[in-house]
Specification:
Length: 103
């Protein structure tokens, strides 16, 4: 698995601006968490209330569902995605962001 530092760097490189907010696409977030885009989108749709304003952006057009996430939104995904890589990535991201060291 990739380190959180490398994943964060990749997400930062792929981030773009939507309505003045720097966001990461659902495609890139799914790749980082090791889940399919369909699974990520379905999980977000079912758990939409868990994302405060400014953390989730709905980019859907007609029948095609698409989301983008702020940096906080990317971290919130760890609470709704269930996979070993999602668990690893979320813990590693918190360590990276807050300077915690692993034992």
């Amino acid at each position: 698995m990739k380190s959180a530092h490398r994943l964060l760097d990749q997400l930062k490189e792929r981030a773009r601006f939507v309505d003045g907010h720097k966001v990461v696409s659902d495609i890139d977030a799914a790749a980082a968490y090791g889940v399919s885009v369909a699974r990520l989108r379905g999980s977000v749709t079912r758990n939409r209330a868990r994302f405060p304003a400014g953390t989730l952006f709905d980019l859907s057009k007609k029948n095609a569902r698409s989301y983008a996430f702020s940096d906080e939104g990317v971290l919130l995904l760890s609470g709704i995605l269930r996979s070993p890589q999602a668990d690893y990535v979320s813990v590693d991201m918190i360590r990276e962001l807050f300077g915690f060291k692993s034992n």
